[in-house]
Amino acid sequence: MSTEDYSDRLKLIQCENFDIAASCEAQYGETERFGKYVYYPATFLFYVEDGVLDIKHENKVYTYPAGSYCLVRKYTHAFFSQTFEKKVRMARSYTFVMPDEFLRKILDNYKFDKNLEPIGDRIIEIPQAESLQPIIQDVKYAVDNNRNLDTKEVGAKVENTLKAIINSNPELAIVFKEFSLAQRADIAAFVNTNYMKKLPLEVMATMCGRSLSTFEREFKLIFNETPHQWILKKRLQYASRLLAETHLKVSDVFVEAGFEDLAHFSKTFKKKFGINPSKVKRRNTEPVHAFALI
Questions:
Q1: CATH of 3-179, one of 3.40.50.1820, 3.40.50.300, 2.40.50.140, 2.60.120.810
Q2: Residue 8: what pLDDT?
Q3: Pair 138, 154: CB distance under 8 Å
Q4: CB–CB of 55/110 below 8 Å?
Q5: Given pLDDT bands bounded at 50, 70 and 90, which one contains residue 141?
Q6: CB 179 within 8 A of CB 74
Q7: Spatial contact of 277 and 239, defined as CB atoms under 8 Å apart
Q8: Which of 17, 140, 247, 272 would suit a FRET pair with 264, their CA atoms being 20 to 30 Å apart?
Q9: Model confidence, pTM
Q10: 248 φ/ψ angles, rounded to the nearest 5 degrees
Q11: Which fold has domain 187-279?
C-alpha cells in the first residue's frame, strides 16, 4: 500500500489511476468546524462516515450528513467544512480523487442514451453508492491498523463498482461524462488554494491545462510577480500567521509552511518582515486547527 501521511488527520492512499484520502478530525470541544477552500483538477467522490460535510459553492451550501455520498466536479472553487458534536467525537470522511483519465476509463464502451440531458451542476448527491461500503471498510481497516492494502485490487473494485452504479442509473453516466471533459483552470483560484503543496511549476502548469511558458506568462499578468516570488510571499505570510495565532514553535512552523531548511526560512522571514520568526509575539492562546483535504 502506498500511503502518505499529510498530517495526523489525513492519510492518502495512492492507487494506480486515482487516490483515496482518509480524513479524520479529533474532538476538541462541544462542536468543532474545520474548513478549507479547495480548487483541484480532479473530481471528488465523497463519503461522509461521521459528522456533517458542508460545501459552499457560490451562494449555495450543500449539506451532507453521515452516510451520504456526493460528487464534486473538478475545478469547483468551494469551501469545504466538517462539523461534529461531542457525542459523535469526530468527523470522518473518505474522498476518492478521480482524474479525467479514470472517469473516461469507467465510461469506456458505455452506450449513452441520446435523450439524456446535460446536468450542468457541479455538486451532485449520489443516492445509490452503498455498494462502495465494502471498499471503504477495507480502506478504514488498513488505515486504522496501519496494514497493507492491495491498491491494484482496490482500484479494480472501485472501477467495477462505479461502472455498476452508472449502469443502474443512466443519468449518472452523463454526469461522469461531463465531469471528465477537458477544462482549463482559473489560475488565480488554483494557486490560491494549492500554493502550500510542493508542486513543481511544470506540474502546476499541467494541472491548470497549460504549457509551462503559457502558465508563467498568464501568472505574471495576473499577479505582477513570478510564480516563485508569489508562492514564497504567500508561504511567509502563512508562517507569520501560524507564529502569531498558534502554539507551534518555529521548528514546526517552517515545515508546516513548506520550507525545507530552518536557517533559510529564518533568513527569508527576517528579510520579508524585519524580525526574526522567534521574536513574533503571539496574539492569542487558542490553537488554530486546519481542515485536512486533498
A1: 2.60.120.810
A2: 45
A3: yes
A4: no
A5: confident
A6: yes
A7: yes
A8: 247
A9: 0.76
A10: -65, 140
A11: Arc Repressor Mutant, subunit A (1.10.10)
